[in-house]
Design goal:
By secondary structure, the protein is an alpha/beta fold. The chain is built from 16 helices and 13 strands. It is globular. The termini are close together.
Length: about 375
């Protein structure tokens, strides 16, 4: 089978791209895989025989280029990874090959746009545009606020085009239906992301843990809100040799580093973007997020492979099955910084409890193995 993955960017160090690489490793043994994206990360190697890119926007040839590529590569299946709504007219172009099967993957929380619109102004770093965008949002003048049906129609059209629409957790099926006003859900199913890592020595990995708390993600203030994590970390007065390591990069890294210096927050290390997170997961006692919203915490799926305890605000229903299997209290009521600090402090100080949680994390990790999730992909594409 010839399969084309459709993405906004590829390759890149990002959740969707990492998930694509993981499932490609499994599917590549039995299928021919290709990738079509808008942009690439110039710092990463690109397979020019399998990676293709849309022409510059000013040429307005997206649909034609897509159709030609489908024909040239004899594509049987398109995996729409995102979904990114600007691709919908391309998939829906009148000259498309109707025999090509389309599978759309929603890697976000269904309806996330309606939550995200409240916070997008935080991504603007220039003071005056930031103020303008904040006022515009407060007055309800964003397109998504005064015309949400426009977005819902695009999702419904994408649902109609797709043989299956895949969400990340069973909890997201009714959420998708309600968010986008679907009349029925017969083509919706759930399939979790797989971890790209596997622990080769689970029997002794916990003995090698260090006093490390780990954050993995993009350093931006719209969703990830690392400023909350720094405030929580600062509130823990006796850190007893523990270190908070922040792996990732992004537009607000200078601002966050300045915050650490200005407030004198101790025992914080900014590591920048990391191509290989395995050594960090191996040493970390816990992996933490303090996001306003999350689709699916891939860092939790990867961290538990090495017994790293997850800790988060309860903002992602898709994460709840993972947390319930370890300890429900690790999902903290949003956005209670004191309660979060109390959970983090207990992880740091209660050795027996930390060991118990880490052992439960290792047992849960099998649910997200590449082999198990790969077999679900086989069933989907059959």
């Amino acid at each position: 089978m010839n399969i084309l993955f459709l993405l906004h960017s590829y390759p890149k160090i990002g959740g969707i791209e990492m998930v694509t690489q993981t499932v490609s490793r499994y599917l590549g043994h039995r299928h021919n895989l290709y990738y079509l994206a808008r942009i690439a990360d110039p710092t990463l190697p690109t397979d020019r025989e399998r990676c293709f890119y849309f022409p510059p926007k000013h040429q307005q040839r997206d649909a034609e280029y897509y159709n030609d590529l489908i024909h040239q590569l004899h594509i049987d299946v398109v995996i729409n990874q995102g979904p990114f709504l600007p691709f919908t007219p391309i998939l829906d172009n009148p000259d498309r090959d109707p025999k090509v099967r389309i599978f759309t993957f929603d890697h976000f929380t269904p309806g996330h746009e309606f939550e995200r619109i409240k916070w997008v102004w935080m991504s603007e770093q220039r003071p005056l545009p930031r103020l303008f965008k904040r006022l515009k949002t407060a007055l309800g003048l964003n397109t998504l606020q005064y015309n949400p049906e426009r977005y819902r129609r695009q999702y419904r059209r994408l649902y109609d085009l797709s043989e299956r629409t895949v969400v990340l957790a069973p909890e997201y099926i009714p959420m998708f239906r309600d968010a986008y006003h679907l009349p029925e859900t017969s083509k919706l199913l759930s399939l979790p992301n797989a971890s790209r890592y596997t622990c080769d020595t689970p029997s002794d990995i916990l003995a090698r843990k260090q006093k490390t708390i780990l954050f993995v993600g993009r350093l931006e203030l719209e969703s990830k809100r690392v400023d909350r994590l720094l405030a929580i970390w600062h509130s823990i007065s006796d850190k007893a040799g523990w270190t908070l390591k922040i792996a990732g990069d992004g537009p607000h890294r200078p601002e966050l580093e300045h915050l650490v210096r200005e407030q004198g927050i101790e025992s914080v290390e900014f590591l920048g973007a990391q191509h290989n997170l395995q050594p960090l997961y191996e040493e970390a006692a816990a992996v933490v997020l303090t996001s306003t919203y999350e689709g699916y915490g891939l860092c939790f799926v990867e961290g538990i492979q090495f017994g790293a305890i997850p800790l988060s605000f309860d903002v992602s229903p898709g994460n709840r099955p993972l947390f319930r299997a370890i300890a429900p209290e690790l999902l903290v009521q949003p956005f209670d910084l004191n309660a979060y600090a109390a959970q983090l402090r207990q992880i740091m100080t209660d050795d027996a409890w930390r060991q118990t949680l880490a052992e439960k994390a290792l047992r849960k990790a099998a649910d997200y193995s590449e082999e198990r999730i790969g077999r679900l992909w086989d069933e989907l594409l059959a």
